[in-house]
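WARN  no MSA supplied for this record, continuing single-sequence
INFO  ligand: pyridoxal-5'-phosphate
INFO  echoing inputs
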Amino acid sequence: MSLSDIQARITAAEAQAGRAPGSVKLIAVSKVQPDDRVRAVLELGHRTFGENRVQEAAGKWPGFRDEFGAVDLHLLGPLQTNKARQAMELFDVIHSLDRPKLAQTLARLADEMGRCPDLFVQVNTGAEPQKAGVLPDEADAMIADCRKLGLPVLGLMCIPPVDEDPALHFQMLADMAARNDLSGLSMGMSDDFEIAIAHGATHVRVGSAIFGARVSH
Ligand SMILES: *Cc1c(COP(=O)(O)O)cnc(C)c1O
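INFO  complex generated
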């Protein structure tokens, strides 16, 4: 697979779902990928990337931004409150707003800094104990709390359980977003982004299908 193959599949899935061309944003998930693979995708002109860890992103993206200009950077992994300031300085969008305490911290820092990244509330649609995110029955209250804090919540994000039909989880997230008047849906990865688009994804997060298997250390 390559970037252009994935873009073509996204365009086809948009058409199939009767959605406007360009309505789905492709986030190229570059976590743990060697720099030469990331540079190759930058050289093709792609400018929207996702990372899981603040530390790792801080090590590689300032350099790439110097070299390639503005890059739209999305944080996808869990965020500790003690890294929140650094994350807000580095990232344009945070997809992992997963607890009230983090919402309070982001709101306080946003006041102080005079700006805030766009946010997605992460929902643990499968209620998996090891997974981040608010539980489905806590989501409405969390969204309301974030709005009271003045946070720019764009939408909802989920990572479905590996052994379940992702369509059920994508639909649950889409329903939750609709009843809360949220237009953003961050859902779909390498193996299921077309299904996510059929259910209304606005942001798909695709790593290995673009870059190849992640190299483990
Ligand atoms: C790693 C990761 C992805 C990309 O996964 P692939 O299967 O490589 O496409 C997407 N979203 C999150 C939150 C991730 O951690």
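The first strand starts at residue 25 and ends at 29.
INFO  checksum written, moving to next record
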